[in-house]
Structures are given as structure tokens and as C-alpha cells.
Amino acid sequence: MLELLDLRERGERLDATRLEIDPTVADTVAGILQRVFVEGDEVLIELAHRFDGAELAEGGVLVTDEELDDAVAATPPELRAALDDLIARLQDLATRQLPREWWDERDGVRFGEIVRPLESVGCYVPGGRAVYPSSVCMTVVPAVVAGVSEIVLCTPPQADGSIPAPVLYAARKAGAHYVAKTGGAQAIAAMAYGTESIPRVDRIVGPGNAYVTEAKRQVAGTVGIDGLAGPSELAIVAEGHVDIDMAALDLIAQAEHDPRARTFFITPDPDLTERVSKALDEALRDAGRREIVDAALAYTKALLVRDLDHACEVVNDLASEHLLLLLHDPSAFLPKVRNAGAIFLGRWSAVPFGDYGIASNHVLPTAGTARFSSGLRASDYVTVSSVVELDKRSAARYAQRTSAIANAEGLVGHARAMDARAGSAEVVDP
Length: 430
Hints:
CATH class of the largest domain: Alpha Beta
Strand order of the largest sheet: 1-11-10-9-12-13
Number of helices: 16
Largest sheet: 6 strands, parallel
Shape: globular
CATH superfamily of the largest domain: Nitrogenase molybdenum iron protein domain
């Protein structure tokens, strides 16, 4: 049975999940970062043996061209075709997300913004519980579309020292320049600082476990990061004639991600909470990954609200990674939504479609950070610089007022630099 929270008479706000940093994890990560900074590849090889059981001393950290060639043949044709389609969809999506260069001119001032791709990025793809070629595509394709010159992909090796063939196929097809057999905090350190094999990058993207997340937090500022990933999240808002069996499958699909995944079923209809709980029990009989699913479902809650306006308040408080609207008219609810990573409208729009590149990237804000951040997009792989050009008369024109502000702030040098331009031109009151 789902845990039921009746919010209809409760006045307090429902808090979003928050990312909690374990001090012991932070200390461990700090030590790993320092070692990789000083010792480089040697630490990556040592930790691959300790954590992954992989021996990399002879073959090295980087995947070879021969391994990439072999991965193509080892990936089933149907899967290759599916990954090719995923990459094509992401290329189209990323192209729409890039900011554009623009220019204007007003009162003698020519101004605009120029857009430049990052020189290098690092993409982290987790391993362990599953194989994630889709995450390769999600992180690498936007970088390629943005025009990044050097793309490094890090992912944990298997015990035999290899990387799963679908991951390597996706890496080659998507456009990664380097693939490194390293995971965990040490992979983040390698991309942030550089090693003998792995180039230093300007930005690191991609989700990972608590050690990866903490490593990204500690190197932020040395490099850019996309965000700090917590457990995966889903909020479902349901009312009316809901296909309750589909809703149960949506809950299970989310639970598959992580034993700490958080899911909320929000409805003003008490009958729906009972029905979805029963349907969930039925659907679990055929569920895979039961240990993970059962653990995650322990966190799943049914939230009973007064009406859809109250449901939207709860949605915005939760700021979930995913939002699924199982409503008669989801488009009418959408304008009220302020905080959500990705939003799926109607019964046919299962959230896993977005996980596999149907009009969405699956690297999304978690732990309530959808309040102030967005999912991974091509614009995260570029910088935008302002460009300003004044002529002689416009410099004199604006110096009168801008110098007054500078002097009021005590920045006399600022004022003198502007006044020097004004002194050699006719002053015109703006």
C-alpha cells in the first residue's frame, strides 16, 4: 500500500527533497581529488582495481580505436539503429537550444552578444546498476552540436577492464573524442585537473552516485558543472478517468532508477489513491529489478489535495525532476506550473519516452533544484559575451551620467576613464 498524506486540511507547505552531503563522503572525495591532482593516471589505475576489479596497468586508461571498432560489431543491429535514431533526435533538439549571436546600434553605440563553444567538456556516464548508452548520447550530442572542440567521456570499467559495447558504440556515433575507463570521484578529478591520459576540461556534465556528486561540488569553480544530482524524482497529478494500470506502471518505471527514487501521486480524488495502490500491487508481480523497485516504492507517497489549484501548489513546492499530468486537459494545468525539470502531458506521454530522447534530455534538475535550474541543453556548452563599441560622440554623451554614478560609488578611476573620452568630444545631453 502507498503511504497516504492528506493535505486537504494541512496548512504547512510540502518541502522538496534536498541533497544531503555525508561528511564521510566529503572527506573521502577530498582525498581522492588531491591524489589525482598530484599522481594522475596512477591513482585511476589503482582505484579501478580497488572499486571495479579491473586491471588497467597494461592497457591504460583510454579506450583504444580497436576497442571502439570491436564495439560496433558487438552491438546488435537493432540496438545500433535505435541509438542512431536517438542521436538524430537529440541533434535536432540541441540545434533549437543554442543562443544566437545578435547586434544592434543605438545613439552611436554598437552592441550585441557573441556565442562561442567551450573548448572542452567532460561527460560522466555512470555504470554499476545498469548500462547507459542513452546517457552517453544525452551528454555528448549537445556538445557536438554546440561545436565543442574536445569531448572527454568517463565511465567505470567492467571487471575485465572493458566498457560495454553499446556504451562505446554510442560514444563513437555521438562524437566523443576520448573515452576513459574510470568512474567515481576519481573520474571527476581527472577531468577537472587533467592527467597524463585525460585532458583537463572546462565543464563537467552528467549524473552519478554520491561520490561523483560530491566531487562535482568540490571542483565547481575550478571547472563548470551542470548541477548536483540527487535521487530521481517524479510527481504525477491525476484526476478523472485515469488509466490506473498505466499510472502504476509509471510509478514502477520511476522506481527502477534508484533505490532512493522519490515519486508522488497527487490527486483530489480519494478513490484514485486506493485504486492506484491496488494496481501497483498487481503490477509489481511482473516487475524487474525488484530489490531496487521495492526500496524506491517505500518512499512513494499518495498526496490527497483539495483541488487542481492545490495540486499545482504542491507541484511547485516539490519542484520535481519529472512531472506527469494525467488529466482530462493537461494543457490547461500547464500555465500554472513553475517548477519542474521536464513535463509530460497526458496518458500517452510516458516519462521514459523523455529518458530516451523523445523531445527531452534526461539529465534534469533534482532535489528541488528545478526551482532555479533547467535540464541539460546545448546552451550549457557555450559562453555568451557582450560586445560594446562606442563612437566619439556617444562616449561624450554617456560619460556625463555614467561618471556621476561612478563618483557616487567612490570609483574615481572609473569616472576619470570615462571623462577622458568626454573631454575630446562635444558633450550632448542624453
